[in-house]
Amino acid sequence: MRTKPMLTFSKLDEETGEMLDRMFEKKDCMVEINPGRVILPADYMTIGQDILDMEVLEDDVWMCSYPRTGSTWAQEMVWLIGHDLDYEGAKSLQQIRCPLVELSCIMVDGHAEWHDESVKGTSVDLVKYRLPHPRYIRSHLPWDLLPLDIQKEDGTVKPKVIYTSRNPKDMVVSYYHYCKLVHELKGTFEEFCDLFMRDRAPFGPVWNHILGFWNRRHDPNLLFIKFEEMKRDLPSVVRKTAKFLDKTLSDEEVFKLCDHLSFENMKTNRAVNLEAILEKSFGKSYLEQTNLRFIRKGEIGDWKNYMSDDLSRRFDDWAEQHLKGTELSFE
Q1: For 44, phi and psi rounded to 5 degrees?
Q2: What is the pLDDT of residue 242?
Q3: How many degrees, rounded to 5, is the angle at CA 210 between CA 13 and CA 124?
Q4: CA dihedral 302, 70, 273, 127 (to 10 degrees)
């Protein structure tokens, strides 16, 4: 009889632990999870094994990504295609109609009241017991921490998995601003980028994350999307995603969906822009006092406004070491 795989949790090394505690202003805020040396909020320890062991269904659609890859944008596209362009249904909060399975370890502290009222239990319970079928489920977890039903190469259940990727140079800039806005991160961009490049940022290591899905890109139940492709030619990505989901869209329907997904519309859409949650957590005046926004710029190459030449070179060298021989590249 095979033994059931178990996650292990360990305290971070002193330097990393102290740096993260200072930046997030919370003692012992992160732990290391294995397999994968993944850094995650400590509350993950209460739900991680449940996620690993949860039953996955054949008609599930799992939307996976590292944080800040355009995943909110992609998930809105996927949910609407999968729900036959139900724009009325899409007016409900995206965080509930297609939730992060690990949401309960992220929306803690200042967000606890919103979480308790909206999620009603844990995010794992929400996915298991209350999502309508077929279930549309998101996750920022790496491949090794997803449910074992998904990981099994010889498994009988093959849900659809859609992975959204982005140039990590732009991703780390967006991630830093997200952490400042949503988790009130303290510290400089350089400090955060240093953690990211040492695989010590939350949800890191980043290359293991991306390549865990990239190396399975030829699996018939996995679609690998790049943020940059969506920016350059959204209609093509919409059609490719529709085909993957066994849906047919007319040119007119593609046009209307791309308009719904435009940056201007996404930025003001309260079902996706997190403003309702931020106002509930921090008060109505919070967004009036900051220029930061959850849907921020949506640009390619914004890293040039934040990285020095030296940091950019070091980042490129680091990326090249991990991408060599993988056939994966980012613009």
Answers
A1: -60, -30
A2: 98
A3: 75
A4: -150
**End-to-end CA, the chain:** 47
Q: How far apart are CA 85 and CA 75, in angstroms?
A: 13
Distance between CA atoms of residues 308 and 48, nearest Å: 37
Whether residue 83 lies in the annotated active site? no
CA dihedral of 173, 176, 179, 180, whole degrees rounded to 10: -110
Q: What is the pLDDT of residue 70?
A: 86
pTM: 0.91
What is the CB neighbour count within 10 angstroms for residue 77?
A: 25
Which residues have C-beta within 8 Å of that of residue 299, sequence separation ≥ 6? 170
Task: Give, in order, the Cα–Cα distances in Å from 176 to each of 67, 73, 90, 292.
Answer: 10, 18, 28, 11
| Contact between 201 and 100 (Cβ < 8 Å) | no
- Rounded to whole angstroms, what are the CA distances from 315 to 38, 208, 213, 320, 321? 20, 16, 21, 9, 10
Structure tokens at 172: 């780390």
pLDDT of the residue at 94: 82
Q: pLDDT value at position 274?
A: 58
Structure tokens at 133: 């079928």
Kindly list the distances between the CA atom of residue 125 and the CA atoms of 119, 203, 242, 273, 283, in Å, as whole numbers in the listed order.
9, 22, 29, 24, 28
DSSP-derived pairing of the beta strands 38-41 and 30-34: antiparallel
Give the mean pLDDT per block of 10 residues along the chain (331 residues): 78 95 94 96 95 96 94 93 96 87 79 66 93 96 96 87 96 90 87 96 95 97 96 97 98 97 78 61 58 60 92 97 97 83
Nearest alpha carbon to residue 302 among 172, 193, 199: 172
The whole-number pLDDT of residue 1 equals: 45
Catalytic residue among 140, 177, 183, 209: 140
DSSP string, 94-152: HHHHS-BTTGGGTS-GGGHHHHHHHH-S-HHHIIIIISPSSPEEEE-S-GGGS-HHHH-
Angle among Cα 41, 42, 48 to the nearest 5 degrees reads: 85
Residue-level pLDDT at 98: 92
